[in-house]
Design goal:
Length: 125
Amino acid sequence: MVSLIDTDVMIDLSRGNADAANCVDSLSDPAISIVTAQELIVGARDQRDLNAIDSLVSMYRVIHIDAAIGQRAYELLKLYAKSDGLRTFDSLFAATAMERNCILVSRNRKHFAMIEGLRFEAPPY
């Protein structure tokens, strides 16, 4: 099964966190959302960081947002934005995982715990 890696884990990986690297290495079929790639770019400080991010992103299958993911994210926001504080990017991660039958791997359990039907796994670090 595909494991969709959330941005928080990818940031840890990009910062050389050995536990994050071990976690990601243990996944049988890791992927990232295009939203994660975009969030990583926003955190770049200079061209060297941009090059490192491009290199990191190129190592993973990138899942792009399509109409089904966008619609699912919209429905999740209607259900959980006001009651549970679900935010736009998190709705896109959850929707991507649900539409592509992935397990979402994230340290942000509280951001996703309320979403029924979402397969979620917190990394062991």
